[in-house]
């Protein structure tokens, strides 16, 4: 990091900047992070109704099933704006912040790395790329200057480089070989280390082989559980030596079980005590006071620990108490009495989310292709929670070594830097979906259903055949002078589909081939053949195409957003 990041809440150390964006009533950028949150919080309630304040908006593009360039996001006060604009404002802010670093090279010599959850589908990844173009991070003419990195992969790349003193091992059993288990570092020493790392302006990525890496042998398998604010991503990697690359053994899986689940449980509790209608009205009419309450909850949530005996109280802001009395005609104490909610244990708020995470890891460990796991790395912002650490250790400590990197909140950031320096470090990835195109095959009586029969130029064809997209395939334009061809891409989460009309198969994108002028290719020269190649190995699916007769490349684009 070039310079110290702004802001933070009292009582919360080393906190990541919240995904909060404030735009003026005209829709221009005002501020991001704590500055945005605090400024919005201080606005007069009447004035605040005209501003656009977005928070925790990153997960919205994962949960939107039909994401397009026109998808809208709703601000806290209900006002709407295109999601692409919102993300572009945030990315533009990051760019302006980053390029102020004095040691940076020329701007067009920068490679940008954007990290996304591994469970994000192709449309969401393409959406981030389009937002980065709009923000001016890179030009669409030089797409290679922007890499999309998967968060658990970045964490995995960083974890294997750690030295033993940079790890906190939650498992207390001795590792194989009879050596003593590494003890958690003395807390005062760790606090000093954290204080120093927070104030340092740069971090160094060691290129040497870490001690943990030296304990790993070729073929060793480990799980990275990336527990963030919105999602939990699980990835299984296997070490390949001597080159040290990673092979993904099991396609990334996950779900919306991040730390936000605890916030939602708290909101549900408030609704139970004070009524859904009151909480909805309070958020709309006193948005700044609602932000105040969430800040108080966040600080307490981070301090919650299983061993803690003293209660962690959350004070309701005066504006909440006052607004409730005016709205309902009685005070908050009466509401508490009526609700029968006396003492709420923190574990009750954490329980639903943590149970989901434990079940998710457990399901993965039971799969035959995921046997013999040696390590379980717990990373991401939510991994800082003592409640989650204790639960994961209790559930899985008997079968593998559960490890948390010391600077767990920065693991993905540092891993993304390493990935940017060497994108080839992950050699094999598993595609979570099967991709294919619809083709015509010769009709076979008894094999193909009659409703799929198409008679064309005296020949019998079977339509709607789902043909898996292999690395390369050839297309012949239907007409000699055709300048552009569009190929529909279909996908399914099974790999045994036969027709594009089968259940679970959906159209998910298009390949566009700009054929240009055929030149002297008259009828005598035969039909043009375009060979399209799809690359599945990277974090994004890419396509290239070649005119086989002229050996010229054909402009090819792949689009998952225009459905």
TrEMBL record:
Source taxon at top rank: Eukaryota
Q: Which Gene3D superfamilies match?
A: 3.30.420.40, Actin, Chain A, domain 4
What protein name is recorded for this chain? Heat shock protein family A (Hsp70) member 12B
- UniProt lists the gene as LOC116997020
